[in-house]
Design brief:
By secondary structure, the protein is an alpha+beta fold. The chain has nine helices and seven strands; from the N terminus they run H-H-E-H-H-E-E-H-H-H-E-E-H-H-E-E.
Amino acid sequence: MASDPIPPPRAADAAIASVSVLGEDSRRRMFAFIRRARRAVTRDEAAASVGISRKLAAFHLDKLVDAGLLRARYETPGGIRKVGRRPKVYEPTDTQLTVSIPDRRHELLADLLLDAVLTEGTDENAAQAAVRTAGQRGRRMGEAEREQTRPGRLGAERGLTACERMLDEHGYEPVRETPTHLRLRNCPFHPLAAKAPDLVCGMNHAFLTGYLDGLRISGVQAVLAAQPGECCVRLGPDDPPPGP
C-alpha cells in the first residue's frame, strides 16, 4: 500500500522555524542591531554590537541568512575601493514574521474586503461586493493551480486531494473523513468570523466555492455546515445523503 504523501511546509511552519532561530540571545541582539542600522553591516560590526568573537558572529549571522531573515553579499563599506577581498556584509530582508497557533489569515480577509470597497458596483451593497470578490479570488487561485499542475479531469477523490495543499497552506487544517468528504478543522478567519458570521462565513463559502470552480472539480461542492471551533464549510459530494 502506498504511503500518504507528505504535505508541503506551510507558511506558518516557516515562520515558526525563523522565530526559533531568534531564540538565541546573541543572535537576536545582532538581528535587532542590523535592522536598526538601516545599512549593510559587517561581521566585525555585528560581533562588536553584542561583544562576541568575529568567528562566533559569523556562525550566528549565517544561521539568520539560512532562516531568510538576513541576506549577505560582499561589499566595500562606505563605497571606498581597497586592495584585497571585500568583506561580507549583512542586511535585513523584507520577511515579516507572524506566528499564530492555530493559523489565522486575517490579511487575506482584509485584502478581500479592500478589493470589495474598491470595486463595489452601484447595484450591490458592501456585503454583496465582499462575497463577489471572495468568489472571484478563489476562482483565480483555482485556475492558476490548474494551469500549473495540469491535473486533467478531476473527480471527487482526486479533486479533494488537489485541494488539500491550498487548504493546508491557508490554515484550514483539512482532515479527510472519507474519500469524498473533507472536513476543515480550523477557521483561519476566527475570531472575526464570530463577530460577523454572516459576512465572513459568506465570503469564506464563496472563496472555497470559487476555488473548486476554478480547479474544475466535478462531484464536489462547498457546503455551509458550521461546527463550534471549526471552519463553517465542508467539502463533499454534490448530492450529500439526507440528514436524520
